[in-house]
Amino acid sequence: MWLLVLLPITGGTLAGDFLAVSTVFLQAGSATWPTVQGTITRSEVETVRSNKSISYRPLVAYTYSVDGQTYEGNKHRISSWSGGELEAAEAMVARYPIGASIPVYYRPSQPSTATLLPGLGNAELFLLMILLPFNLAALALCVIVARIWQPERPLVAPFFREDGSECVTLDVLGTDAWVAMALGGAAFLGPVVGGLSGAYNAPLFVGVGAWAVVIACGVLAGRLANSRLKSGHHDLRIDHPSRSLSLPPIAGRRRRFDVRWSDVRSLRVGEPVRGNQRGSETHYPLMLEYITADGEPHEETIARCTRQGQAEAMEQWLRTRLKLGEETPEARRPARAPAKTTGSSRA
């Protein structure tokens, strides 16, 4: 089933990559093409109306001759797309009035392919930026499918930190996932902001700067995620000398929650909880009941596992480490002060 989803998505992404990258290379290579003089035969602004917006694009046509053969061209760039701003379209039309003689750059191996503006521009840089989120999504899907054939990882993978605490990392995305989300989000917003601000027709350094921002977002997300992972931000910690349990700030907690082993009454896997949206993932909450300082029982969610087996394995591991069952709940309950008696005692 996964292959039926993977193949069309990957195939479509690769096809889009091929068309876009070939266009970008062709536009970049046009800077070295030979030139001939041509004549502008059409120059006007076309209004494109849709249900929700109106955009504008320049329509420029020209004729030129190569080795006695006359050709007609209608692209001022190989990748002739823009943000749809009226000012940019009018500026392009004013630059190429009808009857003007202009240099035309043509492809030596295919003279019918020509352009008026050679070399790499912001339009090509933003085009590549648009493709980045789709490539990251296809790559993520490939990783998910590849993991199906990998050996199953342990349901619980405890390890010891330098301070001697025994830990299990809970509810955490890998550094690569955070980097991919940051890159994809920035690459999605970049062309939108660029189109609204007219950056497609700005100098080339604007597009280069936009790519620098996208890359910086990915680097920053990777460093932050790696730092939190190394610091144990998402670790459930068991401190054997002090006989305490420390829960990470997940599952609705804003800060760490510490509890003594002697205050823990029970562990259990709660009823499965399905997300609010249809088809969303089911979670199995691992619950801990403990005695508060006031002597009242209270329940805390340790984590929300995506698999029932994982929640049950975590429960069994914690039950063994906390030595639950060796003492009765009454024995673990903090002692209360004896109640005061009223009245005088009889001799």
Walk me through the structure:
- The structure is a single chain.
- With 347 residues, the protein is of the alpha+beta class.
- The protein has 3 domains: 34-115, no CATH class; 123-150 and 172-230, no CATH class; 242-332, no CATH class.
- It has 7 helices and 14 strands.
- It has helices spanning 2-29, 86-95, 122-148, 175-197, 204-230, 308-321, 329-332, and strands at residues 35-49, 54-66, 69-73, 101-107, 110-115, 159-160, 166-169, 235-239, 244-247, 257-260, 264-269, 273-274, 282-291, 297-305.
- The protein has a 5-stranded antiparallel beta sheet with strand order 3-2-1-4-5. Strands 6-7-8-9-10 form a 5-stranded antiparallel beta sheet, with no helix packed on it. Strands 11, 12, 13 and 14 form a 4-stranded antiparallel beta sheet that branches.
- A hairpin with a 2-residue loop joins strand 4 and strand 5 (110-115).
- Helix 1 packs antiparallel against helix 3 (122-148) and helix 3 (122-148) packs antiparallel against helix 4 (175-197).
- The radius of gyration is 33 Å and the shape is elongated.
